[in-house]
Amino acid sequence: MKSYTISALSAFLLLLTTPAMATTFPTPTTPFSQYGQIQNVQNYSSNPFWDPSSPYNQRMPVPVYVTGTDVDTADCTTVVGALVASFCATRNNCVGMDVNDARPTITVQLASLPNHNYVTPCAGYIDSEFDKYVSQNAVAAPTGKTVAFPTATTANPTVNQQNYQFTNPYDPKPADWQIDMMERKNELQNLQSANTAGTSQLARASFPTTAADLSFTERIQNDAAGYAPYAGKSAYEPLNIESEEKYRQRTNAYCNSKMATLRTIDADLQTISDCRTSGTPFNDCVKKLQGIY
């Protein structure tokens, strides 16, 4: 057994020292890692402590103070209260809003303040300061105290009640045209009253009689007569259509009269031309004209 162990150990040492059988194992200096990433870009996270085995929601490192934070409670309440007041002052005193609506803005403002780290120690005061501000300013009625109802007052019974009448100095006066209309209206009323014996209303007898005003006997007589009195009558005006013979006579007469007028004008033009050629005076030539101009 001992000789077998020595032989195996000798064979293993011989294998390691033989150059032809040497093997190069991968080292960290190879171009790619076991995750398939380039070695000089180990990860793509903004957290330098992240590695592929870390959870995806790993928090960023936060400072830890040995003796506590450098901001006390009074500073936090003062700073957060001022930021909450500034936030709600431009948003209707945060009426109907939730603290989660204001938390992101106030947290960013805390991180922007210089000289101290206000986010870590003061973030827990946002809820209390927000509720405090809303309870004091979200409603118009005062809170935390009671207001006495005002005492009712009565009128002084010893005051003499008198009716005073005042004229309105700004009462618009009627224009001139309105005054003229009123005068014309009064004039027409006076004339109408003179025509109708003091009244401007029409009497019932002045209206024409209708079938509703007839008695029962008159209605029976009217129904017995029937439509015989209206035979051959029409409620419409018939068309007056001219016959073709009358149309031709009328058009021929019109054309003959116009042709006679044209012949007269042609004769007068010829007369004026002859007078001009012969040198006849104008007044003598006018006497020879047949037409009236």
Order of helices and strands: HHHHHHHHH
What low-confidence regions span 5 or more consecutive residues with pLDDT below 50? 1-5, 15-27
Largest sheet: none
Cα distance, first to last residue? 168 Å
Tally of helical segments: 9
The amount of helix comes to 40-55%
Q: What structural class should be given to the helix and strand makeup?
A: mainly alpha
What is the CA-atom radius of gyration, in angstroms?
Answer: 62 Å
Can you walk me through this structure?
The chain is mainly α.
In short:
This protein is mostly helical.
Keywords:
0% strand; 293 residues; single chain; disordered N terminus
Give the arrangement of secondary structure elements.
Layout: H1 2-17, H2 73-89, H3 99-112, H4 119-122, H5 126-137, H6 176-195, H7 216-225, H8 244-278, H9 282-286
